[in-house]
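[audit] Reproducing an earlier prediction to check determinism. Same input, same settings, fresh worker. If the tokens differ from the archived copy the diff job will pick it up downstream; this log only records the rerun itself.
[audit] input (394 residues):
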Amino acid sequence: MIKTYKVMLLPNNKQKTKLFECASVARWAYNFALEQEQINYKNGSRFLDDKELRKRLTQLKQTEKYKWLNSYSNNITKQAIKDACIAFKNFFEGRSKFPKFKSKKRSKQSFYQDTDKIVITETQVKLEKLATSKKKNKQKLNWIRLAETNRIPIGKNIKYSNPRVTFDGLNWWLSVGVEIQETVDRNYTEGIGIDLGVKDLAIVSTGEKFKNINKSNKVKKLEKRLKRLQRKLSKKYEINKIQIEGGEIRYRKTKNIKKLEFLVLKTRRRLKNIRHNYIHKITTSLVRTKPEYVVMESLNTCGMLKNKKLSKSIQEQLFYEFKRQVEYKCALSGIKFILVDRFYPSSKTCSKCGHIKGNLSLTDRVFICDECGYIIDRDLNASINLKNYGKSIA
């Protein structure tokens, strides 16, 4: 099993410049591969594989115009071309849309590092060819400090896979996969069912409830601050609106606008981190109890978002992220994860007698069975039914 580690980097100004250059080289190589594929398709030829494209790039590097590519790691362009070919294959096989060219402003800045060339220590990571000079004082530029010590496993027998350096708009990150062995523990406790909701984020079959963090004062204050900054930014854009020839309207981006955009991005990232951190705490606490199995319902989130009154609340709850974290943490701990079909009537079924109540509406927060008169909280009833479903097939 491969476990991915993601650690923030702390580069200095010179290293930041080099990292941005490497990301630009990867973007250029990706666009070069797409362009060659499109030209080849228009001429009536077949799909070009990554080996042929890499040969063409090697010939370009020998010319004076593209001589600058030799100053950067060959693995950056090599993997970017592979990514472009994979994007085309996914399109041909119907897994994704037609690949587009990467924009300098909108695309995510990232690049690949070779698994054999990357060196990771407790506090630093060595990237390939950030410094072109072989002098010792210049080679220090290749070593970038890690924000967390002893985060990534190190050792001779450890194999790294797919190391990537990415920029999220605020910070640079290193993500790398490490092959680990699966742990199987026979001392399991009773299985659990988890029901996700809007009023409370998660209700467990044991009776434990996890509150909706979006209703906390901390998140509400940040959301208010974000709204104020967005209004201020919108007004600044309107003030700096200019009209050019042909009636086209453009916006002049001043230094104050750039500062406000940075604050908006920072506030959004803060909100995202709070929500993700809260979900991590919940999922970790549930997996640490070592249940025999964990049962969750496959929710139709896209259909739920069509409800205009609840769409914002559903979007902020991050149901998919919750399910993703539970699934991979169960796999790491050797716990069976069961995903129930979305049409399973977990809320409408009585957890005591099994009678299905067909006229249960969304406003009914308490489940009252028409057959046996059993009264229970709607969400708790659903989580118990999910647990019973897992028990029947476990």
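[audit] rerun output stored. Observation attached for the diff report: The chain has two domains: 2-179, 192-393.
[audit] end
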